[in-house]
Amino acid sequence: MNQSAGSARKNGMLWHKTALTLLVIYLFLPLAATLLFSIANEWQTNILPDSYTLQWYAQLFSDPRFLSAIGRTVLVGVITVIASLAVMVPVIFVLGVYFPKWDRVLQMSVLLPFAFPGVVSAIGLIKMYSSGPFPITGTIWILIGVYFIGIQPFIYQSVRNSLRTINAKDLLEAAEMLGAGKASAFLRIILPNILPGTLIASLLSFSSVTGDFVMANMLVGGQFETIQTYLIQQIDISGQSASAVVITYFLLILVLSGLILLLGNWKPKGYKAKEEEEQ
Questions:
Q1: Which of 2, 143, 184, 262 could in theory staple to 180 by disulfide, Cβ–Cβ 3.0 to 4.6 A?
Q2: pTM strictly above 0.90
Q3: Is the model's pLDDT at 125 over the cut of 60?
Q4: Cα separations (Å) of 275 from 82, 211, 267, 271, 279?
């Protein structure tokens, strides 16, 4: 019986590892091909390039337009995510703890961005904000405003799920009984407990903002060039240069995601001391 169970477990692990390996290959094979194409000097009939070069990367990093586009993209993403978290996390907490009936209304409202196709929304926004009291088409502000709304579903679901894993109301009441104010209890008790969900929301939101092309191209285009619009122009000029842009952009997002995950391991001193005592 034990041997049969052990054999079934081994077979299950084998299928699990095989499926995982195939998934990793499926995801990274296009990226590996893009990397090889970006460093290929000659690539005609062989599976791998005949010779290699880094000239496309050298040209890329000597182009001030590329560096500016990277900076603008990161700037838009960071401002949007910080502003959305600063507004949405307290709202989700207050509605979830004090006004649970209104939480359903918020849940429905944050899903509205999925109901509007990007092209339709962009055309409407261009008509609305090309003139009038707020002529912000072609500026960074319209991008931040659009992405602020667009990332609400990611922030709501991640933060709300984190709040459901803790008894926020009891924690808040216990902190108040010990003399803490509501704001202090939220910042020192609730926020550290929902930090993993908040970081996941940040990663999903940042990836969504930096991966969008429709809004960036239609709303600002060349007036506020981001990496998305720069990449499209490079495809028309040189496929290898565009591949170098893709690889560099991927590495940048990978580094930023790693930094955010490292920050996610941060915990207040009191929490670390408590964990060390329990160990």
A1: 184
A2: no
A3: yes
A4: 29, 38, 10, 6, 6
